[in-house]
Design brief:
This protein has about 280 residues and is mostly helical. It is built from 11 helices and no strands.
Length: about 280
């Protein structure tokens, strides 16, 4: 009989154990920084009375988007307060936006480098393909292995899950800039960095904003899944509703997530549309 077996599981486990033992001191420091970031953001959102946050968010939405969306933001946040999920909503916002910020800090520079180097782009693409096709639950395992249960592991899983669209759309946006515009900039004496900064990045901004939008949506989705490893927030309410088969509790948690998803999506979409008009 044909007998064939590749001990891939054992190899991966052994590899992760070695990496974990080597990186432990660095990861402990990184974990403290990330935990401080999330806690500070969450405390900032929960420190003032809820009505203050509602008004500030509505004004911000009005400035960035429209009066109608500002009204929706106020009513939506008021609803989350009324159904007693305010603290969970703020915790979810803190985790989603912290994950988005770290994803963009890493993803956009990677996208810029990939747009300037075909070799780097060919190396990065299969990694991004792998990151986007692997089931989202799998991200939780190495995150827990390296950072333990809790918000830091949830933030790391969120960051890795949400980063690929930011890198991909940054690369795409810069590469789509007209070659004639780039040549014209070079003809007027612009160097490579100046051409990138003054011509390619401004023209690619709408596409980059589309990547930011996707990044935020994926981060929000991952914060719900990450409730399984102690992320808390609205995802924890949905998880408890599943464990207790409590439909009402599930609807309450789901409603909060829908309000946040619509609000963040419309805001980034409006900003992207404004940039397209100014392009």
């Amino acid at each position: 009989m044909f007998d064939f077996y590749i001990p891939l599981e054992d190899w991966i486990n052994a590899g992760f154990e070695k990496i974990s033992s080597v990186l432990s001191p660095i990861l402990r420091s990184a974990s403290e920084v990330l935990e401080t970031l999330i806690n500070a953001f969450e405390e900032l959102l929960l420190w003032p009375p809820a009505i203050v946050i509602m008004v500030l968010v509505s004004l911000l939405v009005w400035w960035a988007s429209s009066f109608r969306l500002a009204i929706f933001a106020f009513v939506g946040l008021l609803l989350t307060f009324g159904i007693d999920i305010w603290d969970a909503t703020m915790a979810t916002i803190a985790l989603a936006l912290s994950g988005t910020a770290v994803s963009l800090i890493i993803g956009i520079p990677l996208g810029i480098i990939a747009s300037q180097s075909n070799v780097f782009e060919r190396m990065l693409r299969p990694i991004l393909d792998f990151m986007q096709t692997i089931p989202s639950f799998v991200y939780l395992i190495p995150a827990v292995m390296f950072f333990g249960m809790g918000k830091v592991a949830a933030l790391v899983a969120t960051m890795i899950f949400a980063m690929p669209p930011a890198a991909r759309l940054t690369t795409l946006g810069i590469r789509e800039v007209s070659g004639e515009m780039v040549e014209a900039a070079k003809a007027f004496g612009s160097g490579r960095w100046q051409t990138l900064k003054e011509v390619q990045l401004p023209l690619a901004l709408p596409t980059i904003m589309a990547g930011v939008n996707q990044c935020i949506m994926m981060a929000l989705a991952m914060t719900v899944i990450a409730s399984m490893i102690g992320a808390g927030g609205l995802g924890n309410i949905v998880l408890r509703s599943m464990q207790s088969i409590n439909i009402g509790l599930g609807v309450v948690g789901g409603l909060g997530i829908v309000v946040l998803a619509i609000l963040l999506d419309r805001m980034t979409e409006s900003i992207s549309n404004k940039m397209n008009k100014n392009k």
